[in-house]
Amino acid sequence: MPELRRGARRRGRVTEPPALNQQDKKQSRNKAVAVAVGVTERPRTRLAARKLKEEDKATKEVVVVVEEEEEKIVMAIGNDSGGSNKAAAAQEEEGNTAPFPERVKLCIWLWGTVRYASAHAHLGRTASRRDDLESLAYTLIFLHRGRLPWQGYQGDNKSFLVCKKKMATSPDMLCCFCPPPFKQFLEIVVNMKFDEEPNYGKLVSLFQDLLGENPAIRPINTEGAQKIIFQVGQKRGRLSTGEEEEDVPRKKVRLGVPATQWISIYNARQPMKQRYHYNVADIRLAQHIERGIADGLLISCVSSCSNLWALIMDAGTGFTNQVYELSPVFLHKEWIMEQWEKNYYISSIAGAANGSSLVVMSKGTAYTQQSYKVSDSFPFKWINKKWREGFHVTSMATAGSRWGVVMSRNSGYSEQVVELDFLYPSEGVHRRWDGGFRITSTAATTDQAALILSIPRRRLVDETQETLRTSQFPSTHVKEKWGKNLYLASLSYGRTVS
């Protein structure tokens, strides 16, 4: 993995670089290809190098310097092992690092600019080999094209905007002016699993045809890579040791076609009565709630889509009384504080695209104190602070692009983490399930989805939990789940596909 050292180069007015002629383009391509094979082969063949010394000829290290518009990047390509965290799968603590920092960790020892960072690095997650290779892919594409689509963003939310653009840019779009191996490399990398061991031989062999036959004219020494290519032989991606290329088709991510869906969470419960309503207009909300209360049901979950409400009521909430407010503002502070004085606590919230909100407050909860925050971006730092004070997230909602998060003391959770992404974080959810976590809250905007996963203090009798993503409200699926004693526990509508 190349090290990206940022050097401050102050200039006057920045001008666009001159257009490359055919010879310049060929040199850029050759440089990118040589870097690709020179860097990718080293993790497979050598031990990690703690210090890179350009003048140490014995290590055969090579330094490639690339001049940019405003900065100088030095890629020291040495005897590294990929820079990934081999134990990352067991050590990952995504909930302890705030996403979208100004500087991001590109791999285990390396900090760099957001331009080349992997999407998971932007989101504050522990780096794996997949992330090292994703950063390398962006570097190679920059070397070939001279620019990346997410350059030029400024301001406090620069990292958020860069990550959003990366997730919205498909390999087809990003590599449309690059030779096919660049796209193939990126597609393989971004579709890898978190703890997957890369097939370095396959990745190196992608560039075999572009490398050329004469090693003497290459920008860097690729002797080690040539040995791997020789091993690979005529069949790409298959090593002489007998490793076979996977034939199992994978579900691709980053298609460049974003989509929004319903995210519904189902928990195993003892048989009980549950009722749902969806596409409910403001004027019809009260009659549905009053009818449910008359039948012995209370609100367990609320959500919104297209300025219409979804309402879940059941007989298993454990609440003794309930009040609610439909407000034209997102989380009406005065009303909430008034209900707190009466010993009601927020049990569910929802926000609409037009900025209005539905807040449900209940008696009979175990909560002893609550705090909430409304923010233009996901309030991760505030959540982290409240975790240290003994609070846990108990409700979430969005209104347009704004987030509302409610945290409570005495929530019944011993541990909690956040999965925040520009698509439904399926991989993270399954890994958390394996660690004993269960989804306890969810919310989404048209850009992002956030899931709160918690470990209950008391072990559940039945820990079964299932999730669904559907374009329409999952009315048919809800009834099917009831037949298996699975009941709707959380619901949101927003981004699920990038």
From TrEMBL:
Domain of life of the organism encoding this protein: Eukaryota
Matching Pfam families: DUF7477
DUF7477 domain location: 231-498
Gene3D superfamilies: Transferase(Phosphotransferase) domain 1 (1.10.510.10)
Signal peptide bounds: none
Annotated stretches, region: Disordered: 1-35
SUPFAM superfamilies, alphabetized: Protein kinase-like (PK-like)
Similarity section: Belongs to the protein kinase superfamily. CK1 Ser/Thr protein kinase family. Casein kinase I subfamily.
Identification of the protein by name: DUF7477 domain-containing protein
Organism: Brassica cretica (Mustard)
